Amino acid sequence: MENPSMKRQSGFSLVELIVVIVLVGIIGGVLAMQLLPAVRAYLAVGERAALTHQADTALRRIVGDVRRAVPNSLRLGSSQCLQLVPSSDGGRFRNDQDYSPNAPVAAFLDDTATRQSFDVLTQFVNQPAHDDAIVIGNQNPSDVHGGINVALVDTVGAPPAASMGTLRVTLQPGTGLRVPEGYTGARFMVIPAAEQTVSYVCEQGKLYRIAYPDLQAAARCEVPATAPLLASGVTGCQFVYSANQGATQESGFVRLHLTLSGKEESVSLTLGAHVDNVP
C-alpha cells in the first residue's frame, strides 16, 4: 500500500507566486507606459474634433446670415455682439409708369412721392407675406434699424395685367415707400416678420443667436433667458467688421474669431467673409 505521506504535492509555492506577481506588475507597467499616451492622444483627437465641429458650425451659421443680410445693415454693439437685419428674398420694383399707348396704370415707386403699392418685375423664391417688411436703398445701419425706407406688407397678389409685372405688393396704411434721392438701383429686400433683427452675442462662455420681431435704432446685446444656444465652452470671442466706407463702400468685410475649450483641449477658429453692401 502506498504511503500517503509520499504523494507529490501540486500548486504554486509562495516564492513562485511572488515571482509571478512581480513579473505581471512589470509587464503591466511597461504596457501602461506604451499605451497610455496613445489612449490619451486618441481621446484628445476626439475632443478637438468635437470642438472644431461645434466652432465651425457656429461660425458658418453666422456667415450664412451675414451673406443674406440687408446691405449696410451690419453693426457691432461690442466686440462680442454682432447685429444685422436678415432678408428672406428680394427683387426689382417698377420705378416708372408705362407710357405705351393704351397701357394700364401700373404701380411704381420713385423719389417724388410716398406710394402704397408697387409692381414686382422679378420672380420670388420666398414670396413675402403679411407683416413682412420691405426696405429699399439702405445706405447705413442707422437707417434700416431705425425704420427709415422700411414699410410693412399688407397683401401680395397678381397685377391687373401680366405686362405690369409678376406680382403687385400693397403696403400697410401709414407705411408707404419713397425712393431715396439719388438711388437708381430699383432693388428691394424682404425682411421676414419673425426675424427683423438678429444678434449674435457671446456671454458667460456661450454664444447665442437672438432673433427679434422688430427693428430698433439702438443696438441690442442683452441675452434673454430663452435665447437659443449656438455654442458652449466659449473662452474667446471677437467680431470685427469693416464697412470699407469710401471708394469701396459696397464691399465690407467681417472677421469672426471663436475659441472653444473642453476638459483638456482648446480649439481656435477664425473665419472671414465679404459683405455685399450694394443697396
Concise description?
The chain has 279 residues and is α+β, with helices and mostly antiparallel strands. 21% of the residues lie in helices and 31% in strands. The chain has 2 domains: 50-84 and 196-276, no CATH class; 89-191, no CATH class.
SSE succession: HEEEEEHEEEEEEEEE
The tally of beta strands, per DSSP, is 14
Strand order of the largest sheet: 3-8-5-6-7-4
* Proportion of beta-strand residues: 25-35%
Principal-axes geometry comes out as elongated
Q: Give average pLDDT, whole number.
A: 90
Describe this structure in words.
This protein is α+β, with helices and mostly antiparallel strands. It folds into two domains: 116 residues, no CATH class; 103 residues, no CATH class. Helices cover 21% and strands 31% of the residues. The strands form three sheets. Strands 3-8-5-6-7-4 form a six-stranded antiparallel β-sheet, with no helix packed on it. Strands 1-2-9-10-11 form a five-stranded antiparallel β-sheet, covered by helices on one side. A three-stranded antiparallel β-sheet has the order 12-13-14, covered by helices on one side. A hairpin with a 2-residue loop joins strand 1 and strand 2. The longest helix is centred in the N-terminal third of the chain and has 54 residues. The protein is elongated. The mean pLDDT is 90. This is MSHA biogenesis protein MshO. InterPro entries: N_methyl_site, Pilin-like. Keywords: Membrane, Transmembrane, Transmembrane helix.
